[in-house]
TrEMBL record:
It comes from Euphydryas editha. This is Malate dehydrogenase, mitochondrial. Gene3D superfamilies: Lactate dehydrogenase/glycoside hydrolase, family 4, C-terminal (3.90.110.10), NAD(P)-binding Rossmann-like Domain (3.40.50.720). GO terms for molecular function: L-malate dehydrogenase (NAD+) activity. SUPFAM superfamilies: LDH C-terminal domain-like (SSF56327), NAD(P)-binding Rossmann-fold domains (SSF51735). It holds the Pfam family Ldh_1_C. One of its GO terms (biological process) is tricarboxylic acid cycle. One of its GO terms (cellular component) is mitochondrion. It comes from the Eukaryota. Its EC number is 1.1.1.37. It is an enzyme of class 1 (oxidoreductase). The keyword NAD applies.
């Protein structure tokens, strides 16, 4: 019993000694021991600071303190004391925010897209176009030209005028039937018919942009020059008087034979009425140019699109001078071949007419192709879409060409204002110069014949309306933009 007491007392002494030695060691060596905690779920001993906070099942995202920033150093020190740090408090202090209940995120309902607005298709702008009047369209040539021009996109209205003599040939159809037939073609061009019997020449020419004059149906190419001129001059004179009243600003293309005489006659008529503009009067050389270019292309074994033969001087007979030296660059025909081809081109109308004895005038298909191409070029030029270069029988400037004739065929350029530039007679070979001298003398004789006929039979001043005599004074190159009656 005594030995047990001694053993228990010695055990207490040794435990107190060990505890005292630990206190001494802590005081002297200043050694700090970290406390450990044991969790119930596992046996791993970790520091409190290493234990991650429990994840909130409601709000798994970490919470942040709302800091209110204030100026001043004391506030910063206070925040450090609260949060803890190396200098203030213990580094193992753990701050936790109050439990917050996260609200369920409201998913915005998908809004229905507005109905797409229907785009109102605007009407396309009106297509620019010109109005063409064909005088003498009752012939086969006029009907073929109307068929080709109906397919041209730059022509918005096509007016066909039936001349006085409609029963002179058995080859022509009634103009009304032709117009009804042309209206079935699916183009925007509007075709209208006008007749001499109902005095509709004024209505046909009203506000026209291009006027195409064709031959009469009873004209025969075997007739002499004086007979053809005497037959066609009153008709052309009537056309010119109405043009001065209804469409003085129209571009006039003269295809009435003889063209060398009709162009000066129209010019004299328009000068007396005060509506003459040399920029808007052109005699056609499309047909002889086409024939000369085709003949030169066949002689050279080339495609006709690569060959162009300009024509100068007059428009038919011995006054016509095709310049075969300009057909192809760096190539010249011999003088014998040039003379032979020139005579072939000059005699082409009579040669083709003799091939068909039933019709008075033949070769309408080729002539229609050439004239329709000329009208199309002029129409695009008036719309300012192109500046074509064509050969035309026009009035020349006396300072440019020294000639007894005032009207000569030469290459010209056309734009929206009409004929803007006359290129004159190009450089020619010796044979072409000799032919040109003879052509100028013949042109002078023809123009003298026109002047004498006009002074003898015509005076346009008596046929003018009282409105024109009262309000308009004849002045060359001065005109209104539209019909003379537009401002009355």
């Amino acid at each position: 019993m005594h030995s047990l007491n001694i053993f228990s007392k010695s055990k207490i002494v040794w435990e107190s000694g060990l505890s005292f030695s630990r206190l001494v060691t802590n005081g002297i060596g200043k050694q700090i021991y970290r406390g450990y905690a044991k969790r119930d779920d596992d046996g791993c001993r970790r520091a409190c600071v290493d234990i991650p906070p429990d994840v909130d099942p409601v709000c798994p995202q970490p919470c942040e303190r709302h800091k209110k920033k204030k100026e001043g150093i004391l506030h910063k020190i206070k925040l450090k004391i609260i949060e803890g740090g190396t200098n203030f408090g213990t580094p193992f202090r753990r701050l936790q925010c109050k439990e917050k209940v996260c609200k369920e995120m409201e998913v915005p309902k998908a809004k229905a897209l507005p109905a797409p607005a229907k785009k109102v298709l605007s009407l396309p702008p009106p297509r620019p176009g010109v109005q063409v009047s064909i005088l003498g369209a009752n012939t086969n040539l006029g009907q073929y030209i109307a068929l080709l021009l109906k397919q041209c996109s730059c022509i918005k209205k096509l007016r066909l005028y039936e001349a006085a003599d409609t029963q002179c040939t058995n080859c022509s159809r009634n103009l009304c039937e032709v117009v009804e037939d042309l209206r079935h073609i699916d183009t925007n061009c509007v075709v209208q018919a006008y007749s001499y019997a109902r005095n509709e020449l004024e209505r046909c020419l009203q506000n026209s942009n291009i006027v195409l004059m064709l031959d009469s149906a009873c004209l025969n190419m075997n007739m002499s020059l004086e007979n053809r001129f005497n037959y066609q001059a009153p008709i052309v004179k009537r056309y010119a008087d109405v043009i001065a009243k209804e469409c003085p600003d129209a571009f006039i293309i003269v295809c009435t034979s003889p063209i060398d005489c009709m162009v000066p006659l129209i010019a004299e008529t328009l000068k007396e009425t005060g509506w003459y503009n040399p920029r808007k009067l052109l005699g056609s050389l499309a047909v002889p140019e086409m024939r000369a270019s085709t003949l030169a292309a066949r002689a050279l074994c080339l495609e006709p699109c690569y060959v162009h033969v300009p024509c100068v001087g007059g428009t038919e007979g011995s006054s016509l001078v095709p310049l075969f030296s300009k057909a192809l660059e760096y190539f010249d025909f011999s003088e014998q071949n040039t003379d032979l081809m020139t005579q072939t081109v000059r005699r082409a109308p009579i040669t083709v007419g003799r091939c068909d004895g039933q019709c008075i005038k033949s070769a309408e298909l080729s002539e229609a192709h050439a004239l329709a191409g000329l009208v199309t070029k002029v129409a695009w030029a008036l719309l300012c879409k192109d500046i074509p270069r064509v050969s035309g029988f026009v009035e020349i400037d006396a300072s440019e060409v020294i000639s007894p004739a005032r009207f000569i065929a030469n290459p010209v350029e056309i734009n929206g204002r009409g004929i803007v530039k006359s290129l004159g007679i190009p450089k020619m070979k010796d044979l072409e110069i000799r032919l040109m001298d003879l052509a100028l003398n013949e042109l002078f004789v023809k123009q003298e014949m026109v002047q004498n006929w006009y002074c003898k039979y015509c005076s346009s001043s008596g046929s003018l309306d009282a409105y024109q005599v009262q309000f308009f004074t004849p002045k060359t190159l001065e005109r209104f933009e539209d019909c003379a009656y537009a401002t009355l």
